[in-house]
Amino acid sequence: xPLLTAERETSRSxxxxxxxxxxxxxxxxxxxxxxxxxxxxxxGDPRRRGALLRADALSMxxxxxxxxxxNFDPAKFATMPEPAPRKISRRxxxxxxxxxGAVAASIAAIGFSLPAAAITTGLGEVxxxxxxxxxxxxxNTQTSVKIDxxxxxxxxxxxxxxxxxxxxxxxxxxxxxEVTGTRLRAERALFRVRKLEGKPVDIxxxxxxxxxxxxxxxAPLVIPASSRxxxxxxxxxxxxxxxxxxxxxxxxxxxxxxxxxIAFEGETLGQAAAxxxxxxxxxxxxxxxxxxxxxxxxxxxxxxxxxxxxxxARLFDAEIEQRGDIVLLSRGTRQP
Length: 336
Prior knowledge:
Elements (H helix, E strand, L loop, with lengths): L10 H16 L5 H11 L4 H22 L19 H12 L7 E5 L4 E5 L5 E5 L5 E4 L4 E6 L4 E14 L7 E5 L2 E5 L2 E7 L6 E7 L1 E5 L6 E3 L3 E4 L13 E2 L2 H7 L6 E8 H8 L6 E4 L2 H4 L2 E7 L3 H11 L3 E5 L2 E5 L6
Parallel strand pairs: 1-3, 6-7, 16-19
Antiparallel strand pairs: 2-5, 3-4, 4-6, 5-6, 6-9, 7-8, 8-11, 9-10, 10-13, 11-12, 13-14, 15-17, 18-19
């Protein structure tokens, strides 16, 4: 199995440090020395800003769960007033996270404050968009969304592509993602929505809950944390599948693109070639049907299809030939 060189700082390490900083911010305003250390950490790697926002969302989810307890009855609290706002020192810092900092070569981070806007990523581009309330949308390659923050609703329409949402709660305005005639409503959640040409809409919930509503459904469908729902071409109550529970390692593989990676766990070489085509002009063509059906596993750079092809050629005893933007993989004598 092809292996990659370990990164200087792993995503897990970044997430761990982000959780630690959120815990410090929860304890109160930072001292001058702590604030200097926080800014130094934050500016050291562009991935850290998104990690801090995700950690903040997770922290608030955990606080809600602890406060409600196991005997929580939502009907009893329907008219309860909203809790007091969180410490402004923490929110100010998190706002700074979303609007400043360096931009990586392959992952751009931008702030968003306009009432409505359309944002589109190009081939191989991944972009982190921080919204006015601190929620974020990370757009994968060749993705387009339309963002509309109104007085009563925060709405994002996924026109095409793939996006990962980190949603913070707003007591007045729910967050809604519209995709192919469905509405996904969230309060606090981390989830991914994928809409690729010729394929069904794929929804993956990492944290929190989503509520799916659409014409033809008698009642909204709840998609819980650690679950996945693939929508059929035509939504109907009698044909809508139930959300499927998924393991944490599958979530990690499905979201590897946020770190500029592609993860495979038993997909065929042909399927892997098609996945790389989403990120690069360089196309991998496989001349041998048996070779195309070989299973692959590992973590690879999404921007390096040639490196993946070379590793595959070594692993499967195949030949490789590059013709411009086409990389040919075959076994035996090369074909013209």
